[in-house]
TrEMBL record:
TM annotation in the entry: 46-63
Keywords recorded for this protein, A-Z: Membrane, Transmembrane, Transmembrane helix
The keyword Transmembrane is annotated on this UniProt entry: yes
The protein's name in its UniProt record: Uncharacterized protein
Species for this entry: Devosia chinhatensis
């Protein structure tokens, strides 16, 4: 049987936030996900998301 705890083998090394939303402004999920990960202490931090109505709008969402 596989050990599904392998991701936790090195505590504090990798952190991630994953979500999906229909609208890029839906509950400010992108903004809140980025803030949440910015406050964490892992060496490598990632935010993965799927926004079907947001093709090419990432710069607008993160203020770049």
């Amino acid at each position: 049987m596989a050990d599904w705890r392998a991701h936790a083998a090195v505590h504090g090394f990798v952190g991630a936030e994953t979500f999906a939303a229909v609208n890029p402004r839906n509950n400010r999920k992108v903004h809140l996900g980025l803030l949440k990960m910015a406050a964490r202490t892992e060496t490598h931090r990632y935010v993965f998301f799927m926004l079907p109505l947001c093709y090419g709008c990432l710069a607008d969402l993160i203020g770049a």
